[in-house]
Amino acid sequence: MIVEHVINEDPESEVPIEGDYPDEVVPVEQYTISGYGADFDVEGIVKRLIRNDIEIPDFQRDFVWSKNKASRFIESLLMGLPVPGIFLYREKGSQKLRVIDGHQRLMSLRFYIEGKFKDSKRTFSLQSLDSRFNGLAYDDLPDEDRRRLNDSIIHASVIQQEAPDEDGSSQYSIFERINTTSTPLSPQEIRSAIHGGKFNDLILTLNEFEPWRALYGNRSTRKRDEELILRFLALHFCFDQYKPPMKSFLNTFMSGNKDLKLYSEDDIRSVFQDTVSVILEKLDRTAFKPSGPLNAAVQDSVMVGIACRLEKGPINAEIKEEYDSLMQNKEFGNLVYSQTSHLENVRRRIHLAIEAFATVE
Asked: Are 118 and 131 spatial neighbours (Cβ–Cβ below 8 Å)?
């Protein structure tokens, strides 16, 4: 069977994330966004960070700036030079401010004022500078320079989605468009950044489940393995609500269940672990890799099909014959090769998988 949706096990040579959505055209959404400019002094914004009033998402790329780069940024403020502004998103309920763009700058300031750079135990002193500030830690600054830094202004653009009011989907679009990292974030990296919460934490935990790791392979540096978990859960729980594009469907599902209010941790953990365990036990590590590389369409179809059968009780019989028959089905092969996120194709291939395992004892 010809395979699309390749997900490479080698973290050094992962295919671009677009390979997971080769045939999707994401419709243009229209939003009503309110926004305003806000000027924060450095001392105040660092205090907000410490209190978590300004929240850096669980995942918004690791802190990647070198000490040299952080030093030059801080030096610019000490010299009174203008620096780029940041983007913040105000959440309606909590009124917390979530960082969309500016993570590296904000954390550089926090590290400097708190005295330790990243995970280092050594005092954070500015380095590789030609100015008189070279070698100075925050506590070493002359009083006038310390005041100048504390009073320096960081301009922020603060936005909030007003409509549609059922979700915060504009966060995803804004984050995707203005994120300034040199390597664009993958869709799941963005979801994890803007929808961090109990559901995201649960996905991280499920991603460590040993049978899943055996089926998937090496951990993905771009969160593709986590996205496949999300994809299975979304199609299992909300199959009848699916409409393309797949990317938007997954965004909506993760946003809606951010705090595990729609589907409980117990239900999610049970269906995922039971399904994965059966697949590894009764098939093998290549269950999602019929032609070598991992096929995401095969993965979600087989998992949904077996999860549906498990709703009737444990599976005692072997399922290899049913699996092989499904893999050899020409219609199924076409559906996991071409236009894999189209509505009718998704419905049909998952229906075929459910049908294939429905009568297993």
From this structure: no
